[in-house]
Amino acid sequence: MRLGIFSDVHGNLEALQVVASMYADEKVDRLLFAGDLVGYGASPNECVDLMRNLTDEIVLGNHDAAVSGLMDYSYYYDAARKVLDLHSEMLTKENKEWLGSLPYSRVYPEHGIRLCHGSPVDEKEFDYIFALEQAYGLLSYFDQLDQITFIGHSHLCRVFALTNRTVDEISDRTFVIDSERKYIISVGSVGQPRDYDNRASYTIFDTESRVFEFKRVEYDIETSANKIFNAGMERNFGNRLFIGV
User: Fold this and answer.
1) CATH superfamily, with its number, for domain 2-243
2) What are the domain boundaries of the chain?
3) Model-level pTM?
4) Percent of all residues in the chain with a pLDDT value above 70, rounded to a whole number
């Protein structure tokens, strides 16, 4: 089975449309989305509507939780807080309730997979895992981890392979899952990459061959950014799309 795993659309309809098209071309069997449909971009309702037609296998992100009233975001920096307030107003009642109904994680025991937005240790805290020291912090929970945990949240493409005593970062864009290790795989961002590559990030995992692949695709950044500018939102949310930060 070919799984498409992707994350962090953040209201970027143009990026989501292209990634959805790529997954159709790749003939994946199931799509797994690791959260954050809203925040930062100008098309929250359109992204929710499209995602609801793409897959049911979706988990809650911190921005999704914020707009649906499941978490306090008063400590977010001013521009991020304002756009969440705006998205909360823009979303239809149905879409907001749907976001609030999403689970914090999904588990696929037949494939040894967990899907969540941030760290699997306390999923409601949405802790980041994008650096070695953060991955090392999971060693005390090693026995509780699924073989593969797919996450988003950091907007970075990162892979950490764990034994019960060691952590290695894997830089290969395509690799085979080692049955003797456990993995934390951060799948990057569809709508707001932050690794200085402005292309939308998406990934594919073949459950039979156990091959995992990072992929990138260009999309219409100018249209997406102009929507942000024309909506009177923080201009940096549009500017950063061009440089991938």
Assistant:
1) Metallo-dependent phosphatases (3.60.21.10)
2) 2-243
3) 0.97
4) 100
